[in-house]
């Protein structure tokens, strides 16, 4: 019996056992829910492996040279993908990707009939073992098909092995981010040329329809970084204004619908004037704008600021941060990353952005220590967050961008008397922070050998160029689940290391 079929039988056995012990009222205990979810995931991945194998067989029996004897055509379909889509209920595109995965992991024969290993043996092994699903395998295969053109096969095989190893346990979105990091490593020498092509394609169009102005902006990530940062900063400020207004109402003992006067924030809830400059509906309603509405209001406000030289633009301290390795910066090769984006930029673009106002260049040494945190005046806590962002990449748990996170204590400040220093800090969004603290998760940081942990911040707040700001960017962040989630308490990798195949 093949490995996928064995995995499928085992998963179905678990499902049978758990459902047999479940209560009759259809409400399952949490332990049962976790066991069922894991078994369903295992069954789905086993089915993916079997379906990929079948898809490859259907494609082989439907190849063009068979003509009218093609299996797909005899069944009334033009292509094998159309046949698979009709019988499985997926889109034709998904079926075509399934065929591609099946062909990439199927055994092959050479011109003399000798058996050969699969095109991508590491993907085949992980798919058969139920470690990755078909969707994640398809993302990896599509990337490898592009990457193998003009490259040494040993390099591609090494990248394949690293991708598969890292993809185990990741969601499809995280696999895509992982592949993006691999693409950065393999194609960084082409970054600058591609940036020129993208800049040549930038555009802003707008038209009026049904009393609304429609705008469509397409721009390169370098040019778009200040736009995105400023607008996201504005949105963050508005959510903070909501929280401040609610806190003020509770402190005053007022009803939820009573205005709060003198909140100290432009456009606070109940001020009677919206943050875009337009009156609130009735002047008494709470700010119920969606994020998309806030972004539209931000653009309106910023353009009004340019026209009227307005000075009160709330953007919650938004700053564009560009991260680059010192060796790459000095040699002019390699790449940089703008916080909050996945698309890399060339070192030439990093140098251009570093010369602009409101941009902080974060320069890293070869051992992963932070050498320079830019030129802007900053508080110590701001420096801590910048340093931790390089290690965690944003929320170390869910991956939200850095501006949506805060620095939290690993050993709690109150309960554990944990120190407020970088060795005890981690970036988490509010939601993940509460989930981890409230549900009994533990956090462990594994530092590589030679980690520098000295903190040496000047009293006047100026940046001092030195080795070691208290965090090593190659450190690995592990989240350890409580026993009611995972009885074995197997650590789960977090932070940037999830996507760094070079680590």
DSSP summary, beta strand count: 13
Give the helix/strand class: alpha+beta
Main beta sheet: 4 strands, mixed
Number of helices: 16
Number of domains: 3
Query: What's the order of the H and E elements?
Result: HHHHHEEHHHHHEEHHEHEHEEHEEHEEE
Instruction: Enumerate the spans where pLDDT stays under 50 for 5 or more consecutive residues.
Output: 256-284, 373-380, 451-469
**Proportion in β-strands:** 5-15%
Spatial shape:
globular
Q: What is the terminal-to-terminal distance?
A: 37 Å
Mean pLDDT: 77
User: Helix coverage percent of residues?
Assistant: 40-55%
Strand order in space, largest sheet? 6-5-7-8
* Overall radius of gyration: 27 Å
Structure description:
- The chain folds into three domains: 3-189, no CATH class; 226-308, no CATH class; 320-498, no CATH class.
- 45% of the residues lie in helices and 11% in strands.
- It has 16 helices and 13 strands.
- The strands form five sheets. A four-stranded mixed β-sheet has the order 6-5-7-8, with helices on both faces. Strands 11-12-13 form a three-stranded antiparallel β-sheet, with no helix packed on it. Strands 1-2 form a two-stranded antiparallel sheet.
- The longest helix has 32 residues, at 221-252.
- The protein is globular.
